[in-house]
Amino acid sequence: MRDSIYSALQAFIRGFRQILSVKSIHPDGEQPRTHQIASNTHLHPFEELPPAYEPLTWWLDGHCPAHPHFDNADPIRFRAKAIKRALTQSILEGCRTLLERANNRSLLPSLTQHETLWEAAVSVQKYGVVYLATRGECREEFLPAVETNLDLFNEINAFLSVDNNAVRAINYGVHRLVNSTAFTVDYQTRLIPPTAISAIGINHIAVRAQDFDGESARLLDNSSAIWDLHDFAHLTAASVCPELYGSKYFTHLIKLPPKLTALIRSPKMKTAEPTPRYSDGVVFSELLTVLFTTEIEAVQRAEKSHTYVSLTDTLADYVADYLMGRCELQHLTTGAMIRAKKPISAVELATLVQNKAYELTASEIEQRVLTRGGPAGDLRDELDRLSAFERIQFLASCRRWLYFEVRNTIKHRAHKLAYKKVAERMLAQGDDNSITRDDRVLLECILDNIHYKIRDSGEAVNLWQTIMDMHMEAGL
């Protein structure tokens, strides 16, 4: 039995690799465009989209994100579906092993005969703070299948809910997939957090070897979520365009001085004395979370009115002032008010901007890959208190961004916009020759990167490479 499962999985993976190498799924090469609301219309937080909303081609704020290739719906759907299909197959292999361990003979045949029911049941189980199910999957696949066989679905869901079996199976599935032949895997020791999967490009990831050693079966004994499934949103974005959205940590960032890589590593970010104070983790996780919560709660009390655009701009203004040393902001973990000890430099800003190209796009594309929730019991996660079937029904009909989806993406957007504002302010202040020529060049490169300008060579602006080139020219 085990050999047959392994052979079937390997056959699937071979097909999966072939699928991912295809440039387009449209025979004529044309890609269906994403749909959106009128360009001059901006939704308020948590406002519903029109009934015409289609989750596979619309974006939840009504407008296509301003990133290359995001206006082509088919490639995104294709990449996400291929990646998730491979992941789901590995997870279901874990489910089979759990059924065999439990000697549950009644449900074993359904893994083959009713695979969609198993996919649906696994996908709406909460894993960490996310659900693998998307609105499109629930509407197109899961709801029709479950409605025609609700009793069996409930039986499957009951098995997955007992003793955190779904979490165990997902733990197994991620480990199994990474150790299969589906991906080219680079093993790294620096600039990669524990249990993380760094997305480099199509079929190409980087991990720490110690996180994926041993037999996958041992992970079935762990009932707590191990992996960050958001990494599969990164992989989807990197698969859509490796040059723009793939990780460059191990080809470029790793070559920068430690004082610059610390901006991404974010040491001591949860302390009242984080170093550096404008590291990615400090600003995004600590400062922006407080800012977002404050603004949204003011909206909910009807003290303020925001659209997604105005909310992003307001948060960005606060962060830009902070980065330039003009204000102090509240640190989430400690509650302390902190201030940057000096304005951010051009080279520090460039280091951070390049990283945001990786982080923001994964957050934007996440709605096509999974659904972000919150901590267990958090009432702001509307899915948390629903049954498995109710979660499918809810997502199938949901036409609005949910709280934690909004928070994550708007924070990333505001973070990037703040960088843009700082670069523009620094250039404007430099009209009196108060900045060096090299800083001016670097600040202009930062804006080119943010706007996805293409160099004369036909390549996108890689700010980490630009920093290395400038250091070499200066003999540093």
3D structure, described in words:
With about 475 residues, the protein is mainly alpha-helical. It contains 17 helices and eight strands. The protein has helices spanning about 1-20, 75-100, 110-115, 115-125, 135-145, 150-160, 165-180, 230-240, 240-245, 260-265, 280-300, 310-325, 345-365, 390-395, 405-430, 435-450, 465-475, and strands at about 125, 130, 185, 200, 205, 330, 335-340, 370. Strands 1-2-8 form a three-stranded antiparallel beta sheet, covered by helices on one side. Helix 11 packs across helix 12 and helix 13 runs antiparallel to helix 15. The protein starts with a helix and ends with a helix.
How does the SSE layout of this entry go?
Elements: H1 2-20, H2 73-101, H3 108-113, H4 115-123, E1 126-127, E2 130-131, H5 135-147, H6 150-161, H7 165-178, E3 184-187, E4 198-201, E5 204-207, H8 231-240, H9 242-245, H10 258-265, H11 280-300, H12 308-323, E6 328-330, E7 337-339, H13 346-365, E8 371-372, H14 388-397, H15 403-429, H16 437-450, H17 463-473
> How many E strands?
8
Give the overall shape, derived from the CA principal axes: globular
Helical content (DSSP H or I, runs of 4+): 40-55%
How many strands, what sense, and barrel or not for the largest sheet?
3 strands, antiparallel
**C-alpha Rg, in Å?**
23 Å
Distance between the termini: 60 Å
Report the total helices.
17
Poorly predicted residue ranges: 1-9, 11-31
What is the mean pLDDT?
A: 93
Strand order of the largest sheet: 1-2-8
Instruction: Return the domain count.
Output: 2
The run of helices and strands is HHHHEEHHHEEEHHHHHEEHEHHHH
Percent strand equals 5-15%
Output the structural class. mainly alpha
The oligomeric state is: single chain
